[in-house]
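User: Hi! I have a protein structure encoded as tokens and I'd like to know what sequence might fold into it. I'm fairly new to this, so please keep things simple.
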């Protein structure tokens, strides 16, 4: 990488990270440091600043390779426009930085308000619980103004997934398409709600399994995002929750695949595949939550049916929840 480009990247990364960090977590250090909000520490050398700021972008796992930006956020970061041009603030898409140790993607989302009568284009999404509780005009206003409190329970925007970008690696082991709702197979583009902390937690669970000595080639997502309209189809006894975390992009149902068969593996080595194997994944999630309380959430164990093997639901709802046969 040429020096000029490198320094531009340093500045860009610093500003982008500072802004993202200020958005995602309160920074009490700021009050005592006397620095202006959002500015990086002045004396850090560019390389160490870059390294530590990129660490932030890559999450606790160090394995995130993408950050998702609402158009409002993208527009509020001039440095992003310097890097990628005006489209980054105006057009949904994947904008990639070629960093020394691999690509990092900034993905501009479609605004929530682009969903009209439950659809974007011909892709059916449906109505979020928050929209049913508040008048639509109020929800759209809240989305456009970006009021955090008003936005609670409602996504910031939608990742636009196309035939061309569906294989984008958003973390070391996951691609955009892994989290799509499993319906409307011939409709493109599709739309996806996904939160980075979920990706971070899944990467940490996979790493934890390996640390526990469990063979885990692949953590497979059986169900990630579920559009409200898809989720509503399965609501009922033994089915989906009407206010499922899957609608908010912070939940995934997962299992470990080791061989060529797309089915849960025998993780505890007892010669059979059952809920005891799902429990191994749940225990890994438990350990991850102990180490990273900010990723706390739901962990549920599910048994096999004729349609699927045993699996574990993992989410980052912010409060601890446990269910199933622990
Ligand atoms: Zn689930």
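Assistant: Happy to help. Inverse folding works backwards from shape to sequence: for each of the 326 positions I chose a residue that suits the local structure. Here it is:
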């Amino acid at each position: 990488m040429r020096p000029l480009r490198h320094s531009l990247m340093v500045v860009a990364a610093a500003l982008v990270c500072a802004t993202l960090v200020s958005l995602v977590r309160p920074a009490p250090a700021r009050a005592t440091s006397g620095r202006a909000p959002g500015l990086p520490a002045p004396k850090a050398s560019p390389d160490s600043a870059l390294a530590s700021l990129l660490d932030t972008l890559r999450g606790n796992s160090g394995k995130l390779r993408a950050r998702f930006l609402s158009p409002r956020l993208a527009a509020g970061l001039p440095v992003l426009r310097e890097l990628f041009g005006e489209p980054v603030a105006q057009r949904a898409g994947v904008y990639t930085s070629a960093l020394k140790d691999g690509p990092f993607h900034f993905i501009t989302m479609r605004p929530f308000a682009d969903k009209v009568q439950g659809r974007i284009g011909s892709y059916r999404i449906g109505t979020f619980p928050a929209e049913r509780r508040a008048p639509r005009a109020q929800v759209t206003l809240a989305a456009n103004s970006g009021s955090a409190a008003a936005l609670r329970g409602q996504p910031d925007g939608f990742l636009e997934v196309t035939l061309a970008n569906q294989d984008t690696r958003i973390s070391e082991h996951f691609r955009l398409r892994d989290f799509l709702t499993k319906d409307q197979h011939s409709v493109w583009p599709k739309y996806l709600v996904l939160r980075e902390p979920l990706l971070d937690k899944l990467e940490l669970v996979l790493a934890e399994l390996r640390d526990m000595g469990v063979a885990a080639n692949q953590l497979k997502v059986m169900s990630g995002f579920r559009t409200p309209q898809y989720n509503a189809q399965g609501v009922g006894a033994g089915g989906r929750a009407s206010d499922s975390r899957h609608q908010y992009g912070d939940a995934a149902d997962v299992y470990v695949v080791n061989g060529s068969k797309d089915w849960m593996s025998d993780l505890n080595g007892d010669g059979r595949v059952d809920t005891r194997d799902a429990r191994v994944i749940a225990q890994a999630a438990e350990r991850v939550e102990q180490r990273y309380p900010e990723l706390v959430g739901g962990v549920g164990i599910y048994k096999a049916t004729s349609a699927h093997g045993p699996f574990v639901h993992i989410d980052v709802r912010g409060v601890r929840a446990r269910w199933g046969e622990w």
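A useful reference point when you look it over: The chain has a mean pLDDT of 84. Feel free to ask if any position seems puzzling.
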